[in-house]
Amino acid sequence: MFERFTRGARATVKGAVARAERVGAASVTEEHLLIALLEQEGSRASFALATLGLDGRRAALDAAFTEARRRGGLTRADTDALARIGIDVGAVVDRVEGAHGEGALDTGRRSRRWWSGHRPFTPGAKSILEKSLRVALGRGDRFIGEEHLLLALTATPGTVADVLAEHGATYTSVHRALYGPGADGQGHAEAG
């Protein structure tokens, strides 16, 4: 599948691997893919992110991801659903951290193992790469570009999509920023 990626999409994937290595992560996650997209310049995805005001909000995105990792990777929807049945995730996190130390539930904690340099992709990150192919094919595109990766990140339920939505970047708003307000949303059904 990697042969179908444009030069920019390949750079994004390589950037995600480099980001995972820099922070000492055991594997490449969806978050690493988004951060790598944010670091790309001059692409359709960077244009869409800038249009939506996300290009200057890296610190806010990082803080949101840190908080999500602190909650054990639970999405806002998960947290809200648990609250509806009487479970206060914040209180649970506080109790766990009180007993086991700050960041005990952090899903992005660094591994203390020695790594050979190879970082595997998490199932979620692999899903994003696969979904980007479906998004591209659904739009009738032969190659997978950064814009398809970005659309896949917004269309896949999880922490990254939640954080993006909290900052105004939903599948619909990103699609509109990429293809214009009159775009028909083609490819959305294939993205899901």
From TrEMBL:
<dbReference type="InterPro" id="IPR004176">
    <property type="entry name" value="Clp_R_N"/>
</dbReference>
<feature type="domain" description="Clp R">
    <location>
        <begin position="2"/>
        <end position="186"/>
    </location>
</feature>
<keyword id="KW-0645">Protease</keyword>
<protein>
    <submittedName>
        <fullName>Clp protease N-terminal domain-containing protein</fullName>
    </submittedName>
</protein>
<dbReference type="GO" id="GO:0006508">
    <property type="term" value="P:proteolysis"/>
</dbReference>
<dbReference type="Pfam" id="PF02861">
    <property type="entry name" value="Clp_N"/>
</dbReference>
<keyword id="KW-0378">Hydrolase</keyword>
<keyword id="KW-0677">Repeat</keyword>
<dbReference type="InterPro" id="IPR036628">
    <property type="entry name" value="Clp_N_dom_sf"/>
</dbReference>
<dbReference type="GO" id="GO:0008233">
    <property type="term" value="F:peptidase activity"/>
</dbReference>
